[in-house]
Design brief:
By secondary structure, this protein is α+β, with helices and mostly antiparallel strands. The protein has 12 helices and 39 strands. The chain is 19% helix and 47% strand. The chain is globular and about 105 Å long.
Length: 771
């Protein structure tokens, strides 16, 4: 009986399909005639140039033809289309079908939907015109582990938009300029004007007009268009922004990843618009997909408009009028490609309809780490992190934000410890004017252009609780400051005042990531010695953190092909530089006895100093050969160092970084390479490195339908052995969650960062989520 019922169902489906085809054959001619206007006797014939599924595509093609002087219009027709539906099914229960649909969404397939049929519930993945496309989608589903993949063919009536070109009849020849001009019209000069954004197309049109007997003039003029760009921002990881952009593209929204040098991250651009109506339509489409961090950022598009004018001599019968619609001059703007855009550096505004009040969790992270060297007394280092915030934006002008974070550290072995700490995040009051932005409160500001070690980043507060295990943005803490930003076209003036100094956030002295190794008697960045080891192991430590944090000014310019920035700062060093107690130093030099030096110290043996320094810096970046090139340098007036007689001195010096960022094959991979240098001028014999050269950078790629990400961060010393490697493999297909497996490998000579942590190489397994 079950087989009989199935055959009856198939028969009914087949009979329904035949009836639908017959109805389509009978109705298509009348529908097609209804969807277009029949040409009149004197309107000429219409030749179909192309056919599109959307009116927008057809209008673009028709506009392109009209800009070439060809009379074109869009005609709507209705016709039957044979489609292939790729499905999973059938499922007897709705809950099973919904579970399959959610599984597809987790794997990046956003188009899946559940439909009820007479045979059960089916999960429709997509509908395709091409059999090869349907087969490709079926293979993709089977690769994801689905075995109940089905393909069904059906006929659907669809709107189609044809681009047709009008051929004028012979009687209209005089209007088109193909026949001799009679009477007074013959004595008048005929002038035509064309506008292009491509010099090549303008030259071609000028040559064409000359061949047709026109007197031609050509001129050019630079123009700037003011548009509004919809952006989803800002992402610290390029792979996250890339995944979001591809997700938008799958839903028919053009998107691309752009570098945001102001916020030091990546934004996803979803289109620039001059029409408020088009902007609102695109914004609503993005919001329906579930995205909330949508901003409207004013941008400027720089282009050169080329104008070609042709004048036919009065009474000329040899000059042919260019192909155009009869009765009008061809005043058209022909775009020869997409104009390049550059940010206008004006404050971005919230999209219309954005939530005025939001409260919730921003990030969560849980990580377990095991040291790879079994000979070490410490065998594990675990980490827990969470950040949360509340934001209220009552108007476009004002914004209020309150944020916090909690960090938990667990170290197992000897010594072992656990610690949890609550800290504030970016909490401020912000005012946005037409061309200004003023922010008062705790903020995190990272100046500079390059990644990981920007020389101009001197006013931010470093987070050294986990050394370099995290990327740059996560190695900074918020600090109280007053910030004023002034925007003027392509320029931005940024001013910061830090009234109270906040030193770097350091780990517990028992932590393996502490810059003070009391177990082995070493200080980070200083060559070891027996006398120093005894003082570090048994001495006390303090931090001189009183006073102001300093101030800074930065002027930046964003251009289409070249941008740059200049800065002057009076800032204190964030990380402490440990100075030996003067009484202990004198006693140690006189007696050579560390115990006597410790007894002579009146107070702590070492005091962390944060010398104030003048900083003069500059940076620039440009696009060339399919890559982004960056250079940044900073001169510092007071850089600390320790002489051979254990005195702390300050020297003049310079830090510089040059790098290139590119995307091999214009695909999902990103490569960033940087060469860095650190130099102390006129340095005497010191324990510190006077000249350092490093090669650092990162590489990342997403693969397997954007569900996996492979990444590598690295730093290698060129003049002294100093190695840091951080490979990571992460599953990112279940948004907003990430599950990752990675390693942090250290090695190097004495006195280097890698040498200091060469026994602390660690394998980590973790989970993180960005909400």
């Amino acid at each position: 009986m079950r087989i009989l019922r199935r055959r009856l169902e198939l028969a009914r489906h087949a009979r329904g399909a035949w009836v639908l085809c017959v109805c389509a054959a009978l109705t298509v001619p009348s529908l097609a005639a209804w969807g277009q206007t029949a040409p009149s006797a004197d309107a000429g014939n219409k030749a179909v140039i192309a056919e599109f599924s959307t009116r927008e595509q057809a209008e673009r093609r028709a506009a392109s033809l009209r800009r070439q002087g060809r009379p074109a219009q869009v005609v709507k027709v209705v016709k039957p289309v044979s489609l292939l539906s790729v499905q999973l099914g059938y499922y007897k229960r709705l809950v099973a079908a919904e579970s399959a649909r959610k599984s597809l969404r987790r794997n990046g397939i956003e188009t899946a939907s559940v439909q009820r049929t007479t045979a059960g519930y089916a999960v429709v993945v997509g509908q395709y015109l091409s059999a090869s496309a349907a087969a490709r989608e079926g293979r993709r589903l089977r690769a994801l582990g689905h075995r109940n993949v089905r393909t069904e063919r059906f006929v659907q009536m669809r709107d189609s938009y044809q681009v047709v070109e009008i051929s004028l009849p012979e009687s209209a020849g005089s209007a088109a300029g193909a026949a001799p001009v009679q009477g007074a019209a013959a004595n008048a000069s005929r002038k035509v004007t064309y506008h292009f954004t491509s010099a090549k197309q303008a030259d071609a049109k000028a040559a064409e007009l000359k061949r047709e007997g026109y007197k031609v003039s050509r001129r050019s003029r630079a123009e700037i268009l003011h548009l509004k760009n919809l952006q989803l921002r800002v992402f610290q990881q390029w792979s996250d922004a890339r995944r979001i952009a591809m997700r938008l593209e799958r839903r028919g929204i053009p998107a691309r990843v752009i570098n945001d040098p102001i916020e030091r991250g990546y934004a996803v651009s979803a289109g620039a618009f001059s029409s408020e109506k088009d902007l609102r339509r695109r914004y609503e489409a993005i919001r329906k997909l579930g995205f909330r961090s949508v901003s409207v950022v004013p941008v400027q598009v720089s282009l050169i408009r080329y104008t070609v004018e042709g004048t036919a001599p009065a009474g000329s019968v040899t000059a042919k009028a260019p192909s155009a619609a009869a009765g009008g001059e061809p005043q058209v703007m022909v775009f020869g490609g997409t104009p390049e855009s550059f940010p206008g550096y004006e404050p971005g505004t919230a999209g219309a309809g954005e939530q005025k009040f939001r409260i919730g969790i921003d990030q969560v992270r849980l990580e377990a780490g095991a040291l790879t060297r079994s000979s070490q007394p410490v065998d594990g280092s675990d980490y827990l992190f969470g950040s949360f915030s509340a934001r209220w934006r009552p108007s476009e002008r004002w914004e209020y934000r309150l944020a916090g974070r909690v960090d938990g550290y667990v170290q197992t072995g000897t010594p072992d410890y656990s610690k949890a700490k609550l800290d504030y995040g970016d909490s401020y009051v912000r005012y946005r004017g037409e061309n200004v932005r003023v922010t008062v409160g705790t903020q995190t500001v990272i100046w500079g252009r390059v990644d990981e070690i920007p020389p101009e980043d001197r006013l931010s507060v470093q987070d050294a609780t986990r050394f370099t295990l995290d990327p740059l943005q996560q190695r900074r803490r918020s600090t109280p400051m007053l910030r004023f930003e002034r925007f003027h076209g392509q320029y931005k003036l940024d001013a910061i005042w830090v009234p109270d100094f906040r030193p770097a956030q350091l780990p517990d002295m028992r932590s393996i990531w502490s810059p003070v190794d009391k177990t082995n008697g070493r200080l980070l960045g200083v060559e070891s010695s027996p006398a120093l080891a005894a003082l570090v192991e048994n001495g006390g430590f303090a931090d001189d953190k009183h006073g102001q944090g300093g101030f800074g000014l930065r002027l930046s310019h964003a251009g289409r092909d070249f941008d740059y920035g200049l800065t002057v700062q009076h800032a204190r060093r964030s990380m402490p530089y440990y100075q030996l107690n003067e009484a202990a130093r004198t006693t140690l030099l006189a007696t050579g006895n560390p115990a006597a030096a410790l007894a002579a110290a009146n107070g702590p043996t070492f005091v962390g100093r944060h010398p104030m320094s003048w900083v003069l810096g500059g940076d620039f970046g440009f696009q060339a050969h399919g890559a982004t090139w960056r250079f940044e340098a900073a001169y510092l007036s007071d850089m600390p160092a320790t002489t051979q007689d254990l005195r702390m001195i300050t020297l003049k010096g310079v830090d510089w970084v040059g790098g290139v960022e590119f995307y091999p094959g214009d695909a999902n991979a990103r490569v960033n390479l940087q060469l860095a240098g650190h130099h102390l001028f006129n340095a005497p014999a010191v324990f510190d490195q006077t000249d350092t050269y490093l090669l650092n950078g990162s590489m990342e790629d997403v693969f397997s339908y954007n569900r996996w990400r492979a990444k590598l961060r690295f730093s290698v010393g060129l003049n002294k052995r100093d190695v840091y490697l951080n490979p990571e493999l992460a599953y990112i297909g279940w948004e907003p969650n990430e599950f990752y497996l990675g390693m942090h490998y250290f090695d190097g000579a004495d006195g280097t960062l890698g040498g200091f942590h060469k026994d602390h190489s660690i394998v980590v397994l973790g989970w993180r989520a960005h909400y």
